[in-house]
Amino acid sequence: MTDAWLARLTLGAIFIYHGLVPKLLCQDATELRLLDAHGLPHQLLVAAGVGEVLLGLLILLLRRRHWPLWTAMAALILLLVDVAIFAPGLLTQAFNPLSLNLAAVALCVIALRGRAAR
């Protein structure tokens, strides 16, 4: 297993997990508060969860394509900025969006720098 494939596998798992568990299965209170901060309906949580799961699957299935990784990196950075603006208190909690998103961006870079798994 190459480093690039390991990074891609981990990144895909992160997106699938974060789309499935806190958004689709549990509808986490923090996720709902983020929607409230934007004045958005809670029903969007399902769409966000489906989008994250799909992106995770694309990262895993389109192993020779880089655009899912670039999409993930852009989303991670934009969502981190969004949290910093609309819910900065989350950045001081344990296992917060800052540490998670920075680690996931690093995985994107590792996957992009390596060759696609054969």
TrEMBL record:
This is DoxX-like family protein. Pfam families: DoxX_3. InterPro entries: DoxX-like (IPR025695). Keywords: Membrane, Transmembrane, Transmembrane helix. The chain crosses the membrane at residues 42-62, 69-88, 94-112. It comes from the Bacteria.
